[in-house]
Description:
By secondary structure, this protein is mainly α. The chain contains 8 helices and 2 strands, in the order αααββααααα. A hairpin with a 5-residue loop joins strand 1 and strand 2 (about 100).
Amino acid sequence: MTGAIFQGLLIPFLGTVLGAAMVFLLKGRMSRTLQRILTGSAAGVMTAASFWSLLQPALEGSAHMGRLAFIPVASGFLTGSLFLLLLDSITPHMHLDTRSEGPRMRLKRTTKLFLAVTLHNVPEGLAVGVVFAGWLTGQSGVTLSGAMILSLGIALQNFPEGAIVSMPLRSAGMSRMRTFMYGVLSGAVEPLAAGLALAATGAAAAALPFMLAFAAGAMIYVVVEELIPEMSEGGHSNAGTISFALGFVLMMILDTALG
């Protein structure tokens, strides 16, 4: 049991590491089209995972409340979104479309890019930790295979994110090895957040529906605030839109057919 949880928490981190390693294979800047494709697919995977892996089990876990089952789910979702809004406001960071947000601090552009991707990874870690807590407590119908599928889905979308943070750092003049390490460190927050969520939810099993919805709200915030603007930056983007749909369908198939 402990081994399965350990693997599940590390699988998403491995996706980030492999994505960051693309800096050793790709030369120069990442094309805008490829960036849109990668960002769109990541957004699609996160959206599908938020529903099938998080919101649906949350609703099932609060079904005993009858018509009031929506209360812990709705409150958790909104709280998760507000939590990411707070982190977004207090963390200085820069998006790939060069927007700077958070408090004004004299930080390098590369540091702000690193902080932006690190911020993206917090809700994904929370989602994995909460789902494994659901499996451990036997609530909400979460199975081990379902938890593993979520970890795999997050890893799939972490691969492009790892590449997306590494390539701009490389283009800014940073060495390949240092760029790779920045990419790896940006993903290290995921197993940490997953471990904290696992411990917190395990200690208060009754709060599982709320915590599942909390993670979903945090992930959807990232999709709407960060990924969708980046995949469509500069105008209408067929590549980003199609990639979103493909990522959504892929995660849906993994979760419903295998989870």
